[in-house]
Amino acid sequence: MAATTDGTEEHTAAPASRRPPARRRGMGRIAMAVSVFGELLITAGLVLGLFVVYSLWWTNVLADRAADKQADKVRDIWAHQDDGSGRPATFDSKDGIGFLHVPAMSGDEILVEKGTTSKILNDGVAGYYTDPVKATLPTSGKKGNFSLAAHRDGHGAEFHNIHKIEKGDPIVFETKDKWYVYKVYALLPETSKYNVKVLSAIPKESGKTKAGHYITLTTCTPVYTSRYRYIVWGELERVEKVDKERTPPEELRG
């Protein structure tokens, strides 16, 4: 309290208390760290989102383009492949050996090529096994197992809807000269990815004990993982010759 010239007393305000500067700096550092961490999480989320889009959408676009281009090439070869001998065409080629049709799974045709490596399957096709168990091609006329694989997610995802296949459903393999019509008789929704017995010439895990003309579809499961394998088995019911109009068998009509 101070005296004034007119004899009154003047009250002076006491200096306002201040927070310790050190504490204010400490809180600033914490806030900055939280802000940086939040930005990193946002960035990570964006990167992860872009990766998911690439894996599940863009790879499908690229694979479909590659598969369509290759399929057109095969069809073109078939259209011009006629040496006048009447002998069947050479199916086992790098271009593709034929087309798989599975109405319950997809209305689209799936080009079938030799091999099951990622390099082959990533082009949006199905591949027949050459290792660890060699597939028996139906065009050979020999008894055995025509075993195939394709991606379930990404890279065309040709076997994405394999779980929609039921016993009794048709599976048709189309070549230049013939339609091979199979009927699904057994399913195995989950098995180890190391279980190669499902590819055997006589797939005993499907319930068969005698040699026959079988087809096996394999892919990853559950969806968006590759932990296990999903298996579908079919048995050849009949073979139809391809006519000039390439009229599909009744299982593919309608």
Structure description:
By secondary structure, the chain is of the alpha+beta class. The protein has a single domain (59-81, 94-252), classed as Sortase (Sortase, Chain: A), CATH 2.40.260.10. Helices cover 25% and strands 26% of the residues. It contains two helices and ten strands; from the N terminus they run ββαββαββββββ. The chain has helices spanning 21-80, 118-121; strands at residues 2-3, 9-10, 98-101, 109-114, 126-128, 144-149, 170-174, 178-192, 213-221, 228-241. The strands form two sheets. It has an eight-stranded mixed β-barrel. Strands 1-2 form a two-stranded antiparallel sheet. A hairpin with a 3-residue loop joins strand 7 and strand 8 (178-192). The protein is globular and about 80 Å long. It comes from Streptomyces curacoi.
Identify the notable features of this structure and list them briefly:
Sortase_Class_E, Sortase, 254 residues, 26% strand, Sortase, Chain: A, eight-stranded mixed β-barrel, hydrolase, transmembrane, disordered N terminus, two-stranded antiparallel sheet, alpha+beta
Number of strands: 10
Strand content is 25-35%
* Rg calculated over all Cα atoms: 33 Å
Distance separating the two termini: 103 Å
> For this structure, what is the CATH homologous superfamily?
Sortase
The average pLDDT score comes to: 84
- Number of helices, where a helix is a run of at least 4 consecutive DSSP H or I residues: 2
Overall, the morphology is: globular
**What is the level-2 CATH architecture name?**
Beta Barrel
For the sheet with most strands, the description reads: 8 strands, mixed, barrel
Sheet with most strands: strand arrangement: 3-4-5-6-9-10-8-7
Which fold does the CATH topology refer to? Sortase, Chain: A
CATH first level: Mainly Beta
Helix content: 25-40%
